[in-house]
């Protein structure tokens, strides 16, 4: 049976249900890499240039860790996952970049996702997967549609924040903003969510807000073409900032993220001008020490009370 390796980085945190089920439906074994650890991080750092953002470095480490455990490593090529929304350029070139940096030590399978401009590309790449795995094209399409259905139903649980607001929040609540592969990777974020919960703090993230609300609140890009993650972060920031229940905001950003350099500037400026919302910006790279990170966090939590 063919084994497909799925790296636990980048797209994994939002789309793992889709891709794991897709390959299960095709009758493949699925091998997911371990949670991020020092060995994975060091390996990614070794294969990438210094200027590469931290999550992409870590992703390389995950791919390498699957080298002898899988026949193919799955790396989707995301260009756009919604109308008028585009991914960061690193996602568009991820299969090529990883293959070249790792000097072709792994075999890569990709699916192209370009919903805004060329949705037909997905089906062309599904045909290629069928050829590689020797599975009929129609069966590959069926497997994809069935996996998409499971993924779509898993996403209906958003809007938690709005629901909780109407019923009241009784503990200190803060919002945590950042890319899913930062705020849900407990090695990269140094167990930030656990640390906050240990202080009896309720933590809200962009996942807790409904998709359309985030698009409507993504000032000044509402209704325009923009990065998908930009909509997520701007929309979440201004939804949380409008709520008196939220006492402060933490923005966790990886070193060398071009998108954050732009989006964070808009958030910082508007929070200062229009909202009375304390903001803690935490930048993380492969050299960040936990002691300094914790000190800044403690000082911020003491300030918001
Ligand atoms: S959005 Fe930022 S962190 Fe994510 S891949 Fe692009 S540059 Fe890296």
Features:
305 residues, alpha/beta, Rossmann fold, 4-stranded parallel beta sheet, 14 helices, 15% strand, binds iron/sulfur cluster
Provide the spatial order of strands within the biggest beta sheet.
2-1-3-6
CATH topology of the largest domain: Rossmann fold
Number of helices: 14
Counting copies of identical and different chains, the oligomeric state is: single chain
Describe the structure.
The chain is of the alpha/beta class and 305 residues long. The chain folds into two domains: 3-156, 3-Layer(aba) Sandwich (Rossmann fold); 158-304, 3-Layer(aba) Sandwich (Rossmann fold), CATH 3.40.50. 50% of the residues lie in helices and 15% in strands. The chain contains 14 helices and twelve strands. The chain has helices at 12-25, 38-47, 54-65, 89-92, 94-101, 120-133, 137-154, 160-167, 180-183, 192-198, 211-216, 228-241, 258-274, 290-304; strands at residues 3-6, 29-32, 72-74, 77-80, 85-86, 108-109, 112-114, 173-177, 202-204, 226-227, 246-254, 279-284. Strands 2-1-3-6 form a four-stranded parallel sheet, covered by helices on one side. The longest helix has 18 residues, at 137-154. The chain is globular. The model has no long low-confidence stretch (mean pLDDT 94).
């Amino acid at each position: 049976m063919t084994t497909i390796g799925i790296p636990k980085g980048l797209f994994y945190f939002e789309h793992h249900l889709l891709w794991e089920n897709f390959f299960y439906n095709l009758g493949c074994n699925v091998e997911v890499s371990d949670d991020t650890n020092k060995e994975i991080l060091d390996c990614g750092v070794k294969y990438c240039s210094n200027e590469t953002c931290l999550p992409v470095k870590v992703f390389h480490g995950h791919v390498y860790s699957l080298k002898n455990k899988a026949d193919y490593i799955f790396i989707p090529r995301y260009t756009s996952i919604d109308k008028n929304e585009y991914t960061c350029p690193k996602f568009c070139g991820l299969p090529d970049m990883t293959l070249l940096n790792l000097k072709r030590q792994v075999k890569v399978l990709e699916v192209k996702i370009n919903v805004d401009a060329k949705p037909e590309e997905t089906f062309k790449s599904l045909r290629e997967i069928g050829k590689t795995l020797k599975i009929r094209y129609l069966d590959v399409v069926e497997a994809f549609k069935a996996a998409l259905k499971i993924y779509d139903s898993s996403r209906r649980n958003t809007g938690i924040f709005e629901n909780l607001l109407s019923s009241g929040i009784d503990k200190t609540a803060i919002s945590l903003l950042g890319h899913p592969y930062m705020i849900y990777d407990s090695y990269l974020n140094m167990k930030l969510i656990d640390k906050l919960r240990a202080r009896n703090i309720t933590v809200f993230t962009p996942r807790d807000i409904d998709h359309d609300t985030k698009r409507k609140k993504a000032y000044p890009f509402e209704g325009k073409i923009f990065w998908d993650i930009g909509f997520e972060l701007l929309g979440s920031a201004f939804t949380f900032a409008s709520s008196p229940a939220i006492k402060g905001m933490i923005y966790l950003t990886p070193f060398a993220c071009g998108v954050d350099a732009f989006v964070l500037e808009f958030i910082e400026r508007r929070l200062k001008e229009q909202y009375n919302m304390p903001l803690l910006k935490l930048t993380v790279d492969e050299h960040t020490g936990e002691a300094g990170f914790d000190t800044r966090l403690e000082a911020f939590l003491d300030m918001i009370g």
